[in-house]
Amino acid sequence: MQSDGMQPHRIVVLALDGVYPFELGIPNRVFGTADGRYEVITCSLDGRPVRSNSDFDIAVAHDARALETADTVVIPPCDVVPILEHGLPQAVSSALASIRPGVRIVSICTGAIVVAAAGLLDDRPATTHWNFADRFQRTFPRIAVDPNVLYVDDGDILTSAGATAGVDLCLHLIRRDHGSEVANMVARRCVVPPWREGGQAQFIEQPVPPPSAAGTAAARQWALENLHRPLTMADLADRARMSGRTFARRFRDEVGMSPGRWLIRQRVFRARELLETTELSVDRIAGEVGFATGASLRQHLHEAIGVAPLAYRRTFRSGSPVTAADR
After folding, report:
1. The pLDDT value given to residue 199
2. Does the keyword Hydrolase apply (predicted)?
3. Strand 38-43 and strand 9-14: pairing?
4. Is residue 314 part of a domain?
């Protein structure tokens, strides 16, 4: 549990008619595992049981007045076809209007359609489940819809793709709030991958190679254990005992991106961990994660999250937000 005496960050999850039970449970499961750093409560519009998209109803303990007390509001997916066809019901609009200015709003899967119908995503980037992306864009043309990512972080409004991308987004928020060490701890307890970059493809055409084919998992694990080395795609292909062309194709099939892009992301992720948990210099960290120079680390970190290494370290040591001067 928390020992700093601070009030936990309150997350209110709004269950609407036709809610998807799995996604509804994600915030409580993930944030609720962070040793008391978050308080997660669930509400419906009127505090009564809400119909799920399965063969059961879900009872909740709160009505929409709970939204007025939230630090973060989460909108899980629900039956959005009526919203796409007829707009947002007045009761839902009124509930969302009660959210205090500056409160973080998070959607999982088609929950983004609820947020969009309330006018909160106009002129912003967003994502949703790939199967709804085209209709989402047609219905809300002012939104910059990206159907090819797991989640989009636009500061105070964050949207994610389907199902497990909601887990990724919740872990991303814990990492943003408390750093990689806490997020990794939560991931271990939930037995889920600790980190999938938001820009990773949400839909991979061939996620599993044929049973007779060799995979790239062992080469990826070896790369993670040797990030300090100047690894190349040829090194990884040799480790997998494949030609460069075969390895690159199979890697993209399994991971959804090129080996080079994946390797840079792993180096940046490891650098972020070291910035948060050690006093090593930027140049030393660059060497530990396989970037040739501190300047190279600064460039890649800025491209990934928009801040300089020392500003990133200061944020997680002091709890102070990154300012424009840090970028």
Report:
1. 53
2. no
3. parallel
4. yes
